[in-house]
Design brief:
The structure holds two protein chains of two kinds. Chain A is an all-alpha fold. Chain A has a domain of 204 residues. Chain A contains twelve helices and two strands. In chain A, strands 1-2 form a two-stranded antiparallel sheet. In chain A, a hairpin with a 4-residue loop joins β1 and β2. Chain B is mainly α. Chain B has one domain. Helices cover 73% and strands 4% of the residues of chain B. In chain B, the strands form two sheets. Chain B has a two-stranded antiparallel sheet. In chain B, β2 and β3 form a beta hairpin. The longest helix of chain B is centred in the first third of the chain and has 27 residues. Chain B is globular and about 55 Å long. The chains are: A mainly alpha, B mainly alpha. Chains A and B meet through α4, α9 and α11 of A and α5, α11 and α13 of B.
C-alpha cells in the first residue's frame, strides 16, 4: 500500500478509537463535572460492560445480532445498577471528599477487577459482531461494523447533548454542577442527582465497551487504557464541557491511531501521556475550568 | 503532636528495632524471609508517609521512585558489574534526582491535579521501562545472580542471599530510615511540613517558603522510596516492570492508610498487617486484590486514621 491509503486506514482506525473514547470520557467528565470527584473505577465499569456483553451474547443462541442487541440493553443497565449501589453505599457516606473518594474508587477498581478474574477468567474472549458487511474502498475493504460504531457513538453523543441542554433533567444537572448549595435551596434533590449522574456515567462507559467488544476482545484488564485515555481527554477537553470532550477525543483517538500505525504503540502512549501531564502542569487552571482548589 | 516526652518516644522506637532484631533468632525460616521483605517494603511506606501523611500530598505515582531505586541499583549491577554499595547509592541517587525533577513539575499543581499528574508521570516511567525492554528486561524482568550480591567489607564478605544477612541488612535500612523519619518529623522542617498540610496559605503568610519545603519533602520521600527499591533489588535479586506499575503506587497508600497516616510506626504496622492478611487469605483464595479493595473501602469509611492513628487518638496522645 502507498502512503495515502495507509494514512486513510490509520485515520479510520483512529476514528473508531475516538468514537468509543468520546463516550467513555463523557461518562467520566459528567461525574467529574457534576460531582467534583475523580472516579478511578471508571475503566472497570467499561470492562464490566464488555465482559457482560460476552456473557449475554453467549447465553443467547440464534443470530449474533439478537445477542448483541440484548447485550447493548442489559449490560449498561446492570453496570448502572452497580454504580448506583456503589454511590449509595460508599461515596455518599464519604460526603464526596475528593481524596477519600479516590481511595474508595481505587478499592472498587480492585474489587470489580478481581471479581471479573474469578468469574470470567484470565482469557480474552471475542464477541461476534451483529453483522459482518465489508465496505469496499478502492484500496482495501473496511469493516462496516466499525463505521457503524462511529455512527452509533455520534448519535449517543447528540442525544446526551440534547438531554443536557434541552430538557428539565439537563437543567437540574447543570444547576447542581454550577452551585450545589443554591440548587439544594431551590428544592433540587442533589443526592438523587448525584446518584443518577454516577450511574449514567458508568452506563456510558458500558455502552462504549459493548460497542467495541466485537472489534477488540473482552478481557479483565481492559479497563486500564480507557481510564488513562479518558483522563487525558477530560483534561484536554475541559471540565464538564461536552464539546471539548468530543473534540479532544477525536484529537487523541486520531493521533493515537496514526502515531501507533507508524511508530510503536508504547511510544505513542508515552508521548501522549507526557504531553498531557505537561499541559496539566503548566495550565492547570485553564484546563480544569472552575474546579475547587 | 505534643512534645512532652522525647525519652519515651525514642525508647519506643528503639524498642521496636530491638524487638525486630530479636525476632531474627526466633522466627521460622519462612517468616524470617517474609519479615525481611516486609521491612524493606515498610521503608517504601515510610517514604510515602512522609509526603502523604505529613505534607498531605496524595501522590499516585510513587512506584516510579521505588522502581527508580530498583532499576538504578539492579541495572548497574547487571550491566555494569558494580558492587553492592555503589549500586545502592546509584539507586538512591536516581530516585532523588527523579523526585527533584518530578517535584519541580508536579508541585505546580495541587489537589486532584497533583494526583493525576503524578500518576501520569509514573505511567510514563512504566511505559519507558517496557519500551527499553532490551536493557530492563521488560515485564520478564532480570534476575541478579548470587555472585554479584556479595559485599566484602574489610576481610569479611557478606552474602546477601543468606537469610540472616538479608534479614539484618533489611533491619539496618529499616532502623536508619525509621530514626531519620522520626528526626525529620520532630525537627523544625517537619513542623513546617505539618503546618503546610493544615493550612498552606497561613504558613506562607508566616514567611515560610512553602514550595521549597514541599520540594524538599518530595525529594526526601523519593530518596527513601528509592532506597527501599534499591534494597529490594539487591536483597531479593529481581527487578521487573511489575514494580513500576500503578499497583505499586497504590500499595504504599494502602499500607500507610491502614497503619495510620502521619504516624512514624504506622507504615510498618500497615505493611506487616497487610502482608499477613494476604498471606493467610491466600491459603483459602487467590482473590488477593479483592481483599485489598475491600480493605481500602472499609478503611476510608470507618477508620480514616488507621491503626496507629486510632491508638494515638484513644490512648497514647504522645505517639509521634
Amino acid at each position: 500500500m502507498h502512503f495515502g491509503p495507509h494514512l486513510l486506514l490509520a485515520a479510520l482506525e483512529g476514528l473508531v478509537t475516538s468514537a468509543v473514547l468520546a463516550l467513555t470520557a463523557l461518562g467520566l467528565s459528567l461525574v467529574f463535572g457534576v460531582m467534583r470527584i475523580v472516579n478511578v473505577a471508571h475503566g472497570e465499569f467499561f470492562m464490566l460492560g464488555a465482559v457482560l456483553a460476552w456473557a449475554i451474547s453467549t447465553a443467547i443462541s440464534g443470530h449474533p445480532a439478537i445477542g448483541f442487541v440484548a447485550a447493548l440493553v442489559i449490560a449498561p443497565l446492570f453496570v448502572g445498577l452497580v454504580a448506583f449501589l456503589a454511590e449509595w453505599l460508599v461515596l455518599r457516606r464519604l460526603n464526596y471528599n475528593p481524596e477519600s473518594t479516590i481511595v474508595a474508587t481505587i478499592g472498587m477498581l480492585y474489587i470489580i477487577q478481581q471479581l471479573a478474574l474469578t468469574f470470567y477468567g484470565p482469557e480474552a474472549r471475542p464477541v461476534e459482531p451483529p453483522f459482518s458487511y465489508r465496505i469496499l474502498l478502492p484500496w482495501f475493504g473496511y469493516s462496516g461494523y466499525k463505521l457503524s460504531v462511529v455512527a452509533a457513538s455520534a448519535i449517543l453523543l447528540v442525544i446526551t447533548w440534547l438531554v443536557l441542554t434541552r430538557t428539565k433533567i439537563g437543567l437540574i444537572m447543570r444547576a447542581t454542577q454550577y452551585d450545589r448549595e443554591t440548587a439544594q435551596a431551590f428544592g433540587i434533590p442533589v443526592e438523587r442527582v448525584y446518584a443518577g449522574v454516577f450511574a449514567v456515567g458508568a452506563m456510558l462507559a458500558a455502552i462504549a465497551a459493548v460497542l467495541i467488544v466485537p472489534i477488540s476482545q473482552a478481557h479483565y484488564l481492559m479497563g486500564q487504557d480507557p481510564l488513562l485515555l479518558s483522563f487525558i481527554v477530560v483534561i484536554i477537553g475541559g471540565l464538564g464541557s461536552l464539546r471539548g470532550t468530543v473534540v479532544a477525543a477525536v484529537l487523541i483517538g486520531l493521533s493515537d491511531g496514526i502515531i501507533s500505525m507508524f511508530f510503536s504503540p508504547t511510544l505513542a502512549k508515552i508521548i501522549a501521556t507526557l504531553v498531557v501531564a505537561m499541559v496539566l502542569v503548566f495550565r492547570p487552571q485553564g484546563l480544569f475550568g472552575t474546579a475547587p482548589r | 503532636m505534643r512534645d512532652a516526652s522525647p525519652a519515651k518516644t525514642y525508647a519506643l522506637h528503639i524498642g521496636v528495632i530491638a524487638l525486630l532484631f530479636a525476632l531474627n533468632f526466633v522466627l521460622p525460616d519462612y517468616h524470617q524471609g517474609l519479615f525481611a521483605r516486609i521491612m524493606a517494603l515498610a521503608v517504601f511506606a515510610m517514604g510515602y508517609n512522609l509526603l502523604f501523611g505529613y505534607v498531605g500530598l496524595l501522590s499516585l505515582g510513587h512506584a516510579m521512585f521505588f522502581s527508580a531505586g530498583l532499576y538504578g541499583a539492579g541495572l548497574t549491577v547487571y550491566h555494569l558489574g558494580w558492587g553492592v554499595p555503589e549500586a545502592f547509592v546509584a539507586g538512591v541517587a536516581c530516585g532523588a534526582l527523579l523526585a527533584l525533577v518530578i517535584g519541580l513539575l508536579a508541585l505546580r499543581t495541587s489537589g486532584v491535579a497533583f494526583m493525576i499528574v503524578t500518576m501520569m508521570f509514573a505511567q510514563v516511567f512504566y511505559l519507558l521501562v517496557l519500551y527499553f525492554a532490551a536493557w530492563t528486561g521488560g515485564d520478564q524482568g532480570l534476575v541478579i545472580q548470587q555472585a554479584s550480591r556479595v559485599v566484602s567489607i574489610g576481610g569479611a564478605s557478606f552474602d546477601l542471599t543468606d537469610p540472616t544477612v538479608r534479614y539484618m541488612s533489611a533491619l539496618a535500612l529499616f532502623a536508619i530510615v525509621l530514626l531519620v523519619t522520626l528526626a525529620i518529623v520532630r525537627s523544625r522542617f517537619g513542623r513546617v511540613l505539618v503546618a503546610i498540610r493544615e493550612n498552606e496559605e497561613r504558613t506562607k503568610m508566616l514567611g515560610y517558603d512553602t514550595v521549597a519545603n514541599k520540594l524538599a519533602a518530595v525529594v526526601a520521600s523519593g530518596a527513601i522510596c528509592a532506597a527501599s527499591g534499591a534494597a529490594y533489588a539487591l536483597l531479593f535479586g529481581y527487578v521487573g516492570s511489575n514494580f513500576a506499575s500503578i499497583q505499586y503506587s497504590i500499595l504504599p497508600l494502602l499500607w500507610v492508610l491502614l497503619g495510620g497516616a502521619a504516624t512514624t510506626l504506622g507504615p510498618l504496622i500497615g505493611t506487616l498487617f497487610m502482608y499477613y492478611v494476604t498471606d493467610i487469605t491466600s491459603g483459602f483464595t487467590s482473590a488477593y486484590l479483592l481483599i485489598v479493595g475491600v480493605a481500602l473501602i472499609l478503611l476510608v469509611l470507618f477508620a480514616p486514621k488507621g491503626i496507629m492513628g486510632s491508638i494515638r487518638e484513644r490512648w497514647l496522645g504522645w505517639l509521634p
